[in-house]
Design brief:
By secondary structure, the chain is an alpha/beta fold. The chain is built from 13 helices and 15 strands. Helix 2 crosses helix 9, helix 4 crosses helix 7 and helix 5 packs parallel to helix 7.
Length: 369
């Protein structure tokens, strides 16, 4: 546990925030080599990398055939399938309410002004690391794209050697089942910078996409910077932050448990417990990976939360709703003592995943007589 005390009006320093940094030169150099290999050799590079990851030198293609998605349902138990179907319905229901609409108006002088909103043609989804086996992460990225009107969705996921014997080309069967439900058109076995390059540049048998979303490692993030001109790349990665703003009135055990569960398995995840009541320090005592921020007053605590810019924020305060308008930077905000990160993901999709608007473009229209 780390304890940081803030005087009234004092702000958190960069040494406490630990925010994700820009890619290092060595990461950019590694990503550049991967991008150039995909650009020059295309499928050959992807196949060589997939064979190494899968420990399967006889692998014939980096593309997963459609039948693997169809057959995946037979490899997933009934309980897991029920969870996948439930997540599909809940995430779809949430995002169905979100699409932006175009508009038109006619001025008194007869000029017609407006905005046309349309979807990008094709989108790519990267699932890397712990996200590569999560059907919720897949649904969270693919369903908003489909609801926005994206015509083609391509998934890039690395093959896992321990899954090769189960079929599915090394992809977790629950992910393949979710891909089938969500309507993934194509799956390519790729990771890191290779995955981003393949999606943005295309290869034999795979057209390039306009937008790349999902979850990436340092190499993928660096490749995204290099390929900004080829596709719009927006990946969640780095060191995500989870934060609870507490006034000390709730359960200390729940606060610590929820922060411990936040981004479980992500070694770079940051966890903050912020408050203006001295009990915040005692609450964090049992959480060794938690940074406790004790502010002199509520305004200073809220400013600290905005500096942290958490991907997930829980407002555990008696009067929480009035605080929503003061939270400027946060991905998902949960209000109430019973809403954990896991519960919010189940209802709305993965934290830091894209929304429908992320797959839409707008054009301003002016028409004159």
């Amino acid at each position: 546990m780390r304890i940081v005390e803030l005087a009234s009006g004092e702000r958190l320093g960069e040494d406490v925030l630990g925010r994700p940094r820009a890619s290092r030169l060595d990461e950019l150099s590694t990503a550049m080599r991967a991008v150039e290999e995909v650009r020059e050799r295309g499928v050959a590079t992807l196949l060589e990398r997939a064979r190494r990851l899968a420990l399967e030198p006889s692998l014939e293609s980096p593309f997963v055939p459609q039948r693997a998605q169809d057959e995946a349902f037979d490899q997933v138990n009934d309980a897991s399938l029920e969870e996948i179907y439930g997540a599909y319905q809940d995430i779809r229901d949430y995002h169905e309410r979100a699409p932006r609409q175009g508009w038109f108006t006619v001025r008194p002088d007869g000029a017609m002004l407006g905005e046309v909103v349309s979807a990008v043609h094709a989108a790519g989804v990267c699932l890397q690391g712990i996200h590569a086996t999560s059907p919720v992460d897949l649904l969270s990225c693919v369903l908003p794209a489909r609801l926005a009107g994206v015509e083609r969705v391509v998934l890039a996921v690395p093959p896992r050697a321990e899954l090769m014997a189960r079929g599915g080309f090394g992809v977790a069967p629950q992910v393949l089942a979710a891909a089938h439900l969500a309507g993934v058109d194509q799956i390519v076995l790729a990771d890191g910078a290779n995955a981003v390059a393949a999606l943005a540049l295309g290869a034999d048998g795979m057209e390039p996409v306009d937008r790349v979303v999902g979850f990436g490692d340092a190499a993928a993030l660096a490749a995204g910077q290099l390929l900004a001109g080829a596709a719009d790349v927006s990946l969640a990665g780095g060191a995500p932050a989870g934060c609870i703003l507490s006034d000390g009135s709730g359960s200390a055990a729940d606060d610590v448990a929820d922060l411990a569960a936040w981004a479980e398995g992500d070694l770079e995840a940051r966890r903050f417990l912020v408050g203006w009541n001295a009990s915040v320090v005692g609450r964090a005592a049992s959480g060794t990976e938690i940074t406790a921020v004790l502010a002199a007053d509520r305004d200073t605590a809220i400013a600290a939360v905005n500096d942290i810019a958490p991907a997930w924020l829980a407002l555990r305060c008696t009067e929480a709703m009035p605080l929503l308008g003061r939270i400027r930077v946060a991905g998902t905000v949960c209000v109430g003592r019973s809403v954990s990160a896991a519960r919010s993901e189940r209802l709305m999709g993965s934290i830091a995943a894209p929304t429908v608007a992320d797959f839409q473009r707008s054009a301003r229209i002016a028409a004159f007589k």
